[in-house]
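[step 3/7] fold_predict: job queued, chain A
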Amino acid sequence: MDDYLQTTNPYVYAVGDVTGRDMFVYVAGYGGTLAADNALNGSNRCYDTDVLPRVTFTDPAVAAVGLTEEQAYEAGHEVKVTTLPLEYVARAEANRDTRGLIKLVADKTTDRLLGAHVLAPEAGEVIQTAAVAMKVCMTVEDLLDTLFPYLTMVEGLKLAAQSFDKDPAMLSCCAG
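[step 4/7] structure written:
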């Protein structure tokens, strides 16, 4: 199978679990749409899961997108990493469930976000915002300049970005 999901038989395309990679329902749907467009319309759209949010529905849930710290080093990046315990996220406090953390991996030279990892009851919802940020090549500074609604779990991404340079214990609820 090539980057267009076409098999060695030019009339056959493969998607979903049969490909042996990215085995998630939403990826199979994406692959099906892409393969149909390529097969029927000759679109030559490439299969691209470089920014693939992944969620394991445990309690708390585990979610990730992009590179781990180790993968970023292996890819040749000069890496900076921060880990924010959920005790610093006001929504987690309000929910009375501060189990977990948000970890961000960024390139130290370009400031570009390379990966996000979330351990939290709402990790699946939080990771999607990180995926969008990575899809549009946001930097840590871009995250800091983005407004996040107060008293949401996704605000934890901004707080984590702040914790690259600031002690989260020293920030107020709405610090910029």
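[step 5/7] annotate
The longest strand covers residues 113-120.
The chain has a mean pLDDT of 95.
exit 0
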